[in-house]
């Protein structure tokens, strides 16, 4: 089997890392290397890793003082990796023993596939967290199957729009052509952006139903509600403005605006005593002040696109598991 570099971004994840690393040690296909990239943790993660897991490669994202976010942290690990495949795993996950082998086997059978999504379950083990990403009819992206009961519908091998960044496998040669995660996103939507760029470059993404992983959803303790709301709103707008064809943007503008701005206005925007209200208006200001950013990104993406817009937009609203 080809070598796999397994990358775990970590920020204050000491509480979950042991379970994650112990589960990795039980994989039927052992990774070529396990790389934990720390993003300015303030807990005892680094000390614990150095003491209890000397066999892993421990890297730091940036100077180790100021956090750089999920995208930059994962990119640090990818640049240092040596495997033919790049496996990504959140620090608050527990993969089953065949998780990695099932994804690699699926990818070996699909040479056009740049990525593979796994079956991510909520911590109760009964409901889906994500079986990939869905390109919604309103032009946004979300976790495919989130909250649905884990049943036989999700047992089939099929194509999905892209994988969730929390538990995925990427082909290194495909990333060399596509590029890595966009570090300006910091966190949230960076996996949707990369999946869209992979589609634009002519690749597909597949789903391996037997590659199961439990997502404990511990979250990053130091990423506050303010950051989460701001990044989700801002990056959702960036995803649409940087990637979608102009025709799709014009036809679905109000749907996109409702999904990423207006509905949050009614939820957060009129409550100044809430931290989410400040997050909302900060995100809107960043979107309004960033036309140069997304026009530049859009130009770069369009220059690299080799497939017709229709080939990508046919995924709008497409759910391969819908009954």
What does this structure look like?
The structure is a single chain. By secondary structure, the chain is of the alpha/beta class. It folds into two domains: 4-215, Spore Coat Polysaccharide Biosynthesis Protein SpsA, Chain A (Alpha-Beta Complex); 225-313, no CATH class. Helix content is 41%, strand content 20%. It has helices at residues 14-24, 45-52, 69-80, 99-108, 172-178, 190-200, 225-243, 246-251, 253-269, 275-288, 291-304, 309-313, and strands spanning 4-10, 33-38, 57-60, 85-89, 93-95, 113-122, 128-130, 133-135, 141-143, 158-160, 167-171, 204-215. The strands form two sheets. Strands 1, 2, 3, 4, 5, 6, 7, 10, 11 and 12 form a ten-stranded mixed β-sheet that branches. A two-stranded antiparallel sheet has the order 8-9. Helix 2 links the parallel strand 2 and strand 3. Helix 7 runs antiparallel to helix 9 (253-269), helix 7 packs across helix 11 (291-304) and helix 9 (253-269) runs antiparallel to helix 10 (275-288). The mean pLDDT is 93.
Keywords:
20% strand; 323 residues; globular; ten-stranded mixed sheet; alpha/beta; two-stranded antiparallel ribbon; single chain; 2 domains; Spore Coat Polysaccharide Biosynthesis Protein SpsA, Chain A; 12 helices
SSE topology:
Blueprint: E1 4-10, H1 14-24, E2 33-38, H2 45-52, E3 57-60, H3 69-80, E4 85-89, E5 93-95, H4 99-108, E6 113-122, E7 128-130, E8 133-135, E9 141-143, E10 158-160, E11 167-171, H5 172-178, H6 190-200, E12 204-215, H7 225-243, H8 246-251, H9 253-269, H10 275-288, H11 291-304, H12 309-313
Parallel strand pairs: 1-2, 1-4, 2-3, 6-12
Antiparallel strand pairs: 4-11, 5-12, 6-7, 6-11, 8-9, 10-12
Helix pairs in contact: 7-9, 7-10, 7-11, 9-10
């Amino acid at each position: 089997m080809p070598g796999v570099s397994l990358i775990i971004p970590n920020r204050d994840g000491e509480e979950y890392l042991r379970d994650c690393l112990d589960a990795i040690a039980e994989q039927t296909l052992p990774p070529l290397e396990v790389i934990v990239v720390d993003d300015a943790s303030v807990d005892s993660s680094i000390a614990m890793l150095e003491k209890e897991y000397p066999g892993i490669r421990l890297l730091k994202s940036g100077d180790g003082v100021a956090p750089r976010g999920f995208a930059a942290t994962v990119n640090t690990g990818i640049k240092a990796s040596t495997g033919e495949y790049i496996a990504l795993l959140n620090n608050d996950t527990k993969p089953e023993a065949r998780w990695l082998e099932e994804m690699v086997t699926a990818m070996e059978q699909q040479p056009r596939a740049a990525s593979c999504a796994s079956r991510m379950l909520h911590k109760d083990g009964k409901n889906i967290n994500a079986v990939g990403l869905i390109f919604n009819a309103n032009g946004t992206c979300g976790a495919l199957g989130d909250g649905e009961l884990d049943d036989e519908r999700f047992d089939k091998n099929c194509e999905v729009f892209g994988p969730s960044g929390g538990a995925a496998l990427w082909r290194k040669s495909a990333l060399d052509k596509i590029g890595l995660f966009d570090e300006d996103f910091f966190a949230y939507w960076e996996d949707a952006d990369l999946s869209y760029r992979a589609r634009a470059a002519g690749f597909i993404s597949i789903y391996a139903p037997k590659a199961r992983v439990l997502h404990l959803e511990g979250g990053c303790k130091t990423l506050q509600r303010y950051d989460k709301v701001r990044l989700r709103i801002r990056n959702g707008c960036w995803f649409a403005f940087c990637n979608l064809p102009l025709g799709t943007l014009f036809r679905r503008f109000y749907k996109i605006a409702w999904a990423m701005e207006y509905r949050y206005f009614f939820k957060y925007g009129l409550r100044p005593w809430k931290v989410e209200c400040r997050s909302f208006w900060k995100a809107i200001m960043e979107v309004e002040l960033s036309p140069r950013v997304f026009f530049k990104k859009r130009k770069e993406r369009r220059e690299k696109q080799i497939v017709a817009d229709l080939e990508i937009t046919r995924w709008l609203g497409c759910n391969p598991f819908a009954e």
